[in-house]
Amino acid sequence: MSSLPTHLEPPHLNLSVGFRLPKWPGFVRNAIAVGVRENEAQCSGSGFVPRKFYLRGAQSKPTPDDAKRYIERLVIEKDSRSDLEYIERQDKSEAYTIEVSEDGGALIKISSPLGGLHALETFAQLFFAHSSPSFGSYTPYAPVSIKDSPTFEHRGLNLDISRNWVSPADVMRTIEAMGANKLNRLHIHAHSQIWRTEDLEAVQLHGTDYGVQVFVEIDLPGHTASIGNAYPPLVTAKDVPWPEYALEPPSGQLRLNSSEFPPFVESLLNDLLSRTSHRSSLFHLGGDELNMNAYLLDPTVKSSSYRVLQPLVQAFVDHVISIATAHSLTVIMWEEMVLDWSLTLPRDVIIQTWRGSDDDALGSNLDKG
Q: What is the predicted pLDDT for the residue at 32?
């Protein structure tokens, strides 16, 4: 790798962009083209001066007297299955390679649009701001060869917008930071207060622009006191002293044996999932912290017995999975449904563990298969 800096011109000058993506739809090519133009602005507008990257006094940046060389050509092409063969994993969709030459050429090879987004992000991060504002941006990495792919398929964050209000604008800002760090899943936990439907749609669309799949958790059948505000007959143990009927306030759980319960859940989820499934392949049904004592107050159950409740929980989860499957979604649920309720689940259901290593929850889940 040469230490000789290459200076990047401002985004409206001298950069020629070419695409070799013959098999992809026009809207995909257009999305990548938009990403390239935004990437240009990001490169030339870098505000990061890397003083701490080098020893004091070391020559690490171009001087005004240095001859400038510009990146004038950027080509993005679909990989011909040669340069990405170094990846042993079967899923290569996020992989990419970058080649930057000293003569001002840059070649990016990708196997999918996701790989393109990651490659452009890495490309932008090669550039630094000069300590002299009039100089602009430069990269000390020319020539450079980069081959990159993820180790983990799921690299995500969990954001709770129910217990703490988080605006859509703040979530979009979080998505941008996730994209910069190549995280690809944002789990939105929403069991009470949530945004308008158009807010959720805008956040999911913003996630698509940054390679982040945004999926929603509607926590069921516990944590449903908010449903009781609108549909009181559907919820038990609401507006009672919470310590006996919930792990944390407010108490309230769906009445699992009510005849009104299945059509309500079906209506709720069909409305929600028809909106979210266009931009996500996942749906989180929750399933944590279900309190058995709450069903002593449920007139359709009147029992806290595990033997009574377990078949009702199984039937509920089966129903929700069937609805999600009809929308071509993969279901995620918390580990209690397996460890505490011993449910029988389809092989494609994803179990999320959260209770920590003290109880060896992860090991217990793996033991369950």
A: 63
* Nearest-10 Cα torsion for 21, 26, 29, 34: 160
- Given this model, what pLDDT does residue 12 score? 36
Q: How many CA atoms lie within 13 A of 248 on its CB side?
A: 4
Residues 6+ apart with CB under 8 A from 94: 112, 114, 115, 118, 149, 150, 184, 211
Residues 6+ apart with CB under 8 A from 86: 147
Answer whether residue 90 shows pLDDT above 60: no
Q: What is the pTM of this model?
A: 0.85
Answer whether 143's CB lies under 8 Å from 2's CB.
Answer: yes
The pLDDT tens digits of the residues spanning 9-47 come to 433 334 555 556 545 555 455 556 656 666 666 666 666
Q: Distance between CA atoms of 114 and 221, rounded to whole angstroms?
A: 35
List the Cα angle 63/68/73 in 5-degree steps: 140
User: Do the Cβ atoms of 315 and 262 come closer than 8 Å?
Assistant: no
| C-alpha angle 79-80-85 in degrees, rounded to nearest 5 | 80
> How far apart are the C-alpha atoms of 28 and 110, rounded to whole Å?
13
With a CB cutoff of 8 Å and minimum separation 6, the contacts of 286 are 191, 217, 218, 219, 220, 222, 223, 333, 334
- The residue-averaged pLDDT of 248-255 equals 92
Other CB atoms within 10 A of residue 52 CB: 5
Backbone phi, psi, residue 223, to 5°: 55, 45
Phi, psi of 53 (to 5 degrees): -80, -15
Give the Cα separation of 20 and 99 in Å (integer): 15
- Cβ neighbours of residue 350 closer than 8 Å, sequence gap 6 or more: 282, 330, 331, 332, 333
Whether 331 contacts 278, CB under 8 Å: no
- Do 368 and 339 form a contact (C-beta atoms < 8 A)? yes
Nearest Cα residue to 44 out of 70, 67, 18 = 70
In the chain, helix, strand, coil percent, each to 5? 35, 20, 50
**DSSP assignment string, 244-285:** GT-SSSSP-EE-TT-TTHHHHHHHHHHHHHHHHTTT-SEEE-
